[in-house]
Structure formats: C-alpha cells, structure tokens
Amino acid sequence: MEPRQRLIDRWKYFSNLFVGKSSDGVQLLTNSGDNVLRVFNIEIEKNQKEKSGDLKVKSEFDIGEAISYPATCCALMSTRDQPIKIIDTNTGITRAKYKAFDDKEQILTAYSASFNRCGDKIYMGSWERINIFDVQTPGYPIREIKTSPDRKSRDGQKGIISCIDFPLLTSMSTDIFASGSFSGSIAVWDVRKNTNELTWKVKNHLGDGRGITSVQFSPCGNYIFSGARKSNYIGCWDLRNTSKPVTKYRRGCHTQQRMGFVVDHYQKYLISGQHDGKISFFDLCKNNLTEPSFEFEDFVGDVSLHPFIPMLASVSGQRHFDSVLRLEENNEGVESGDSSLRIWDISKLINEI
Fold it and tell me: Rounded to whole angstroms, how far apart are CA atoms 46 and 268?
C-alpha cells in the first residue's frame, strides 16, 4: 500500500527516533539524532508528497521525550541534565520550565515525561523517582514518589523510570498510571494512596530481563502492553491477574533503540514497527499477525495513529556507522538509509473492523 503522504527531511548522519501527534491531529512531532525537534503541520486535503519540518527546535543535548499538550499547540520536551520545557509548536518559544533536584542538589534528568489525561499534571521519570508537576505552576514538583525505599533495598521499582502511560479517562481514575524501568520491571501506581503503594510489579519482561522501553494501556484499561530493549516480543498483561502475561506478539527488535507501538482506538489491532523495515498489524481478537502491508528501507522506530481519522504516521532510520565513516572521508552530506516520516492511509483496514 502506497503512503497517502510522505514527509521527508534528510540530514547528515542522523535518524528519526520517535513520532508524536497533537491532540487534534493537526501537527506531528519528530525527534532525531541531530537533537532537533521537528514539527510538521499536516494538511490532509492537499496531495503533498514531500516537505521539511515547518518548525525546528534545536537542543544542545539529546532529546529524551516530546509529548504534545492535550488541549493546545504545545509540546513537552525533556533533555539530559536540563529542565523539562513546554514549547509552543507554532513559534518555538519556551512557555514554561519544570525541574527537580536530587539529595545532592543536582538537577535530575527526565528519562521519561508525560502529561496526564486531563493535561493539568506532568509526570517525570528519573532514577528511582517519579516527580509530579502542576502545569499551571512552573518550577518545582508538587509531589515526589520514590519507587524504591533506598539503593540497597530490593523492594519497589529499581533503576531508571524509562516510560510512563495513563489509561483513558473513561476506563480508570486520572490518579492511576503505569511505569516501566530499565531494570526490567513494570508497575502500576495509584497516587491517591498516601503510601504511594506499588500495586503490581513484574521483575522480568517475558523472561529475558531486559530494560522496558514502552508501556501502554489498552483502551478498555484492563490490559497493559509492554516492549523492551532487544526483545522480539510485545507482552500483554491482564491487570486482574498479573501472575503471567496473557499473550505475547512477536516482532523483530535487535537494537537498544526504543521501538514504539500503538493500539488502535477500537482495540482491534496492535501496530508496531520492526527492525527489518516492516510495519506489523497484530489482530488482537484473533491473536495472530496480519500480513505487513507497509515497508521501509530501514529500521521503523515508532508509529502513531491520528485521533479522529484512519491515518497512521511512522518514522524510520538508525545510525549506520559504516556509512558515517565513508561519508566523513568523502565529505558528503546525506547518510545512506531511509530517515523519513511517512503518513499512511489505513481506511481499508479500519473499514474491516
């Protein structure tokens, strides 16, 4: 199936890492290896084949996360050893900054950051801590959750909190969220409890013990899907019985790089990229893999669905060290491979639901 639109922005040596969308589906965000956050304004009615980013926000350090604000054209951006910023995606101006410090008064790096479903709180994951900020009050956190009592303790969720996700407003309370860590554990939290009790934990991801890179609630709120570093499976966990995964879905992931996935709004398909450049559609009802219809020439790092219409955005690209050395010797400006953002029309697939 050919893409409905193809948005390409190439640059020297670097590749796309993830893609995000605004709540109204008007803008797309991409993060790449050259530390630039790119904003694309999507014009659905125009048959536009190629374009570069409509707005580019340069960062001095690696961009760890970029999440769009649920209500307006703003994005949450986190970088290493820097405060979290809210960026205006129309002008590129920084609207607010949020920062947290450790016991030694050193600023904490936000390895993961996300708005809650209401958009009034920001959750930041760092080393064995989750800090909660009030969006209306920039500056310091209003609450801190220590995921483990201390460094020597084996209790709680150890390591770097690498990802955070919230269930839909119709399925659970806004005070419940899930977190994954690079130590290989998944946890579900209820911040209404004064003890910040860890309600569920899985120490090893499908038996391989690698770091968790992605967690996502199902639309119904009863299941959690998880992906890990260099793990060829996406696990599905039932919150009502977390003793073992309900099932697992096989995908090709042979890299330490994050590989995102998404569950469609009808909870019919699980969509994920693969290391070989394919996009796989797993039928959650029949529990099998449909034939992949989209293919890239390079690693597919992330996918995202439009909130209202049947459109799928995907990004591809990774570092090619052999080509980097060759380009440096020849003084060339474009890396081999496919570093692109594409938009696909999946209306035929949705109509089958």
Answer: 29
| Contact present, 192 and 172 (Cβ < 8 Å) | no
Per domain, the residue ranges of the chain are 5-351
CA distance 341 to 11: 13
Q: Are 65 and 123 in contact (CB under 8 A)?
A: no
User: Is 253 within 8 Å of 286 (Cβ atoms)?
Assistant: no
Q: What whole-number distance in Å separates Cα of residue 346 and Cα of residue 8?
A: 20
92-132 tens-digit pLDDT: 889 999 999 988 888 998 999 998 888 889 999 999 999 99
Considering the four listed CATH numbers 3.90.1150.10, 2.130.10.10, 2.30.30.240, 2.60.200.30, the one that applies to the domain covering 5-351 is 2.130.10.10
Counting Cα atoms < 13 Å in the Cβ hemisphere of 61 gives 13
Cα 161 to Cα 185: distance, rounded to the nearest angstrom: 9
What one-character DSSP code corresponds to residue 87? E
- With a cut of 50, which residues of the chain have pLDDT below it? 2, 5-16, 45-46, 324-325, 333-334
Burial category of 287 from C-beta neighbours within 10 Å (exposed 0-12, middle 13-18, buried 19 and up): exposed
How many angstroms separate the Cα of 88 from the Cα of each of 68, 112, 175?
A: 10, 20, 27
Q: In this structure, are residues 189 and 179 in contact, taking their beta carbons and an 8 Å threshold?
A: yes
Burial of 325 (0-12, 13-18, 19+ CB in 10 A): exposed
For 289, phi then psi, to 5°, come to: -100, 125
Collapsing DSSP to helix, strand or coil, 45 comes out as coil
| Residues linked to residue 214 through DSSP beta bridges, in sequence order | 227
Q: Which amino acid is at 241?
A: N
Q: What is the pLDDT of residue 288?
A: 77
**C-alpha separations of 331 from 33, 98, 246, 274, 334 in Å:** 19, 40, 52, 31, 10
